[in-house]
Amino acid sequence: MLGFSLTGVRSMIAVGAHPDDIEIAAGGLLLSLAEANPGLRVHYVLCTGSPERQAEARAAAAAFLPGAELTFALHDLPDSRLPAHWNATKNIVHEAAATFPGAQLVICPAQNDAHQDHRLLAELAPTVFRDQLVLHYEIPKWDGDLSRRNTYLPLTDEIARRKVELLHASFPSQKGRDWWDDEVFLGLARLRGMECRSRYAEAFDCNKASLTLGSEGGS
Questions:
Q1: What CATH code is assigned to 11-205?
Q2: Across-strand partners of 203?
Q3: Which of 124, 147, 201, 209 is most buried, judged by most C-beta within 10 A?
Q4: Secondary structure of residue 200 in the 3-state scheme
Q5: Over the stretch 99-149, which tens digit does the pLDDT of each residue have?
Q6: 200 close to 192: Cβ distance less than 8 angstroms
Q7: Domain boundaries along the sequence of the chain
Q8: Phi, psi at residue 61, to the nearest 5°?
């Protein structure tokens, strides 16, 4: 299995449909990038969320990305109705690209995600971010849409457990959900770790990447 270093990534756009999507799917990536890349700049984009949930998202971003320079574009489109607001959603993604044009890395939902809001963002992102490395993340859910992935980020035990700790601390509004627990979060991380010969990992899809012999691009 070939490996590519994310050390050197200085800027990233994180795109989510709902508050907590990004951290559930890629909290380990956020913690790892912040640790490895001092001065990291991150533009956080969410399409839906009440004021309470947006406040949770802001606090979560600060917790998962300590020391990073954060900017936010938090929107309040109707939850579970993004396909009916296609133009507005498309504009949000374009605005993110225009606001943060030098981003080296973009993370967004997976294209085979069963949730319609996630799936729309997954379809739109590659049409807008043509010069960035785009990683499509996965979110466990009732729909049971987990599948084979092609890109892995091994996580240390410390980062995997810190991710779960921060999920609980950052999103108190979600603690009543029957799937919101350590076993779900660490269980998926353990399975993805097994697939890449690590204890824990997060998994992504990457549909297109450019290989270089130099250090440019940070990936």
A1: 3.40.50.10320
A2: 152
A3: 201
A4: strand
A5: 999 899 999 999 999 999 999 999 999 999 999 999 999 999 999 999 999
A6: yes
A7: 11-205
A8: -60, -45
